[in-house]
Amino acid sequence: MARQIASGVILFAAFMFALLSVLGILRSKNNLAALHCLGVTSVTLPILTMVAVLVDVGVGVSAVKTFSFIVILLLGGPVTGHAIALTDYRRRPHR
Amino acid sequence: MNVPETFNGLLFGAELLFIPLAVAVWIIVSGDTVRRLIALQFAGMLVSTQIVLLSIVFATEEFADVGVALALLSIGGTIAYGHFLERWL
After folding, report:
1. With an 8 Å Cβ cutoff, are A31 and B38 in contact?
2. Neighboring chain A residues of B34 at a CB cutoff of 8 Å
3. For site-directed labelling of A43, which of A14, A72, B52, B85 has its Cα 20 to 30 A away?
4. Which one-letter DSSP state was computed for residue B53?
């Protein structure tokens, strides 16, 4: 039960980061600031998810699959962020 | 499928992530074009995380591959859609 509560607390922290991030995306004045808020979740959510899975079920098939999922998210986050920023820059009318 | 009867931390976390997902869906529906793309990337991350967590909770680890595939497609989809936006819209 202690492991369940610990993983719940870790995922609650991930939820708080995600909530702050999405509120930042909602309230940002321009798209680059919104992209900055997206970066918070793209780093914290995969890492905290991995920690929660390791605390809850330990090392096993689930942890390996979660690790591969996390590697994809951590490598893909900067790539998509760059692509969205480039899109925003090239769509500006003054350019 | 094993349904947990007591408190499950992973299930709790997966359900909590529906709240930011709802806000992201709201941005996708009502935001401007690039902001929608940002929210779409955010929603893809949340949903793939939820799928991975739920596959562990219900002891169906093979479904974690769906989350991994969704994360991969989300990255490719965001890049392709951004390219489409800057070129044709």
Report:
1. yes
2. 31, 84, 87-88, 91
3. B85
4. H
Amino acid (1-letter code) at residue A33: A
Is the CB of residue A49 less than 8 Å from the CB of residue A62? Answer: no
Is the Cβ of A50 closer than 8 Å to some Cβ of chain B?
no
What's the residue count for chain A?
95
- DSSP assignment letter at B63: G
Digit-coded pLDDT (tens) for B26-79:
999 998 888 999 999 999 999 999 999 999 988 888 888 898 899 899 999 999
Q: How many residues does chain B have?
A: 89
Handedness of CA A31, A37, A41, A43 (dihedral sign): positive
Q: Under a CB-based contact definition with an 8 Å cutoff, are residues A4 and B3 in contact?
A: no
| CA gap A29, A70 in Å, rounded | 30
Domains in chain A: boundaries = 2-90
- Beta-carbon separation of B7 and A1 below 8 A: yes
Q: Quick one: angle between helices A31-57 and B9-16, nearest 10?
A: 170
Prediction ipTM score: 0.89
Q: Give contacts of A53 with chain B, Cβ < 8 Å.
A: 10, 53, 56
